[in-house]
Amino acid sequence: MIDYRTLADYNLNSVLKTFLIVFCLVQPIWAAPSAESTFVLENGMRVILSQIPERQAVAILSYYTTGAIEDIAEHTGFSFFYGSMHGLFTTENQKPYYSFRRLTENGGIMHYNIAHDDCYFLQIAAEEELNNALWSESENIFLLSPSESELKQLKDYTAEIARQFGPQNILYNARLWMFNQLFLARPGYANPLVGNPDQIRSWTYDDILKQIKRFKDPAQVILVVTGAFDPSQAQDNIQKYFEGMGTPRSPPQSLSAPRANQSSSIRKRSWWRDGLETQHLQIGYRLPGLITSSQSTEADHFVSRAIFKFLISPGLSHLDHMINRVNQLQVTISAEITENIHENALLISFAAKDRNSLEKAKFILTSELQALSNRKISLLQMKSIKAALKNEFYMKMADLGKRAIEIAKSFHMFGLINPTEQFERNIQRLDQNSIMRVIKKYFTEDRQVQLYVYKKE
Question: What predicted TM-score, i.e. pTM, was given to this entire model?
Fold first, then answer.
């Protein structure tokens, strides 16, 4: 879930303005009509305008179609490093103006996120601040180049973050080990986003400048503007600030996962570690990517999300019901499902005081998946799953920032500027038979990895 950080100074004026913008953000916009258009600048940058006149704020999103999976071995964590640089530093042109302060003092929000497949930089501002926000973003994309001393400070900052996820963080490293076994076609998905602290400190100034060039390519950027704005004026300003910047290039070719020689992974391992108060078991399943060579796998991943919701999410929590209520165990259950383009994983974690409870929980999970692969869930359960998925999706679309992200992702992966089309198509296809089919196909022993993390005695 995205953690938007409001960075405005706490004076009465800015607090009131922030309140007004946030009030606008939570209005139900999925029912409001929107007008979408798209165009490509000469330098290869793609632009999407999604106008919603009823809103009193506007979101500006720079969505990069490159991410941590493209970090080379000697620079693992560089995407995270660049995101921190983008979020913390300003250009020479910005310094006297200090656009960051101007945006936040007028009630705006700034946020960035780095992932394996992509990364984005988001601004949410009052409608009258759109021109300033566009200018500021063009500065960040094309002209941001911190000094050598600033980059040294940033290296120390990111290396310290990476150190916090070192060997002493047992469960974090268990998660990385699981992903290393689950991601076979794209092992880069298992790399830690923050990198290695010793490696980060070894980067030279010239190394960093070379790596920054990857993010200066305008063909890697999808610019999304959504909310209340004048489309013709916005297009004029986008062409004014972004046209001619960077090296002209054609947009990247459509994505498809290359065929990989998938070697088998370790399916089961046990660790004994000091400092644990409980015993842990992680069970992972290898799932399809959002885009692969097969047209059916995008729908398969959507069905996998539906199964994840049924098993884990609040309000459904079938797994918790069966383990802790029906069988009266005391097991803490958590889970995550990745959203990668080429390859994904579902990771289910159990924690308990004794090993016997972990074994029982694993048996119940296996039994329930076996039952679900051979027996249709009830129509009431199916309706609950669809309601949970719809609630999650439309809550995103009701938030300007998350709406911009969904638009960019949909355009990047499927060529659609209205993500609702793809979602509704997947919802209509989702039924009891598709649940059974996907469990039989992906939730199998040969696609499963187990890791026990025991308390050392």
Answer: 0.81
* Residue 95 pLDDT grade (very low, low, confident, very high; cuts 50, 70, 90): low
Question: Which CATH number belongs to the domain containing residue 77 in this structure?
Answer: 3.30.830.10
Torsion of CA 409, 415, 418, 423, to 10 degrees: -70
Half-sphere exposure of 298 (CA within 13 A, CB side): 17
Which residue segment(s) compose the domain that 157 sits in? 12-166+184-242
**Residue 233, helix vs strand vs coil:** helix
**pLDDT average, residue stretch 384-402:** 94
3-state secondary structure of 22: helix
| Spatial CB neighbours of 372, under 8 Å, sequence gap ≥ 6 | 307, 435, 436, 439
Question: What would the mean pLDDT of 5-25 be, rounded to a whole number?
Answer: 36
Answer whether residue 103 is part of any domain: yes
Q: Is the dihedral of CA 382, 383, 388, 394 positive or negative?
A: positive
Distance CA 3, CA 22 (A): 14
CA nearest to 83, candidates 149, 141, 143: 141
DSSP state of 198: H
CA 119 to CA 62: how far, in whole Å? 8
Q: How many angstroms separate the CA atoms of 137 and 387, rounded?
A: 37
Contacts of 210 (CB under 8 A, 6+ apart): none
In terms of DSSP bridges, do strands 35-40 and 448-455 run parallel, antiparallel, or are they unpaired? unpaired
**Residue 269: partners with Cβ closer than 8 Å, 6 or more residues away:** 177, 450, 451, 452
**Res 260: pLDDT:** 45
Residue type at position 368: E
Q: Is residue 342 domain-shared with residue 236, that is, in the same domain? A: no
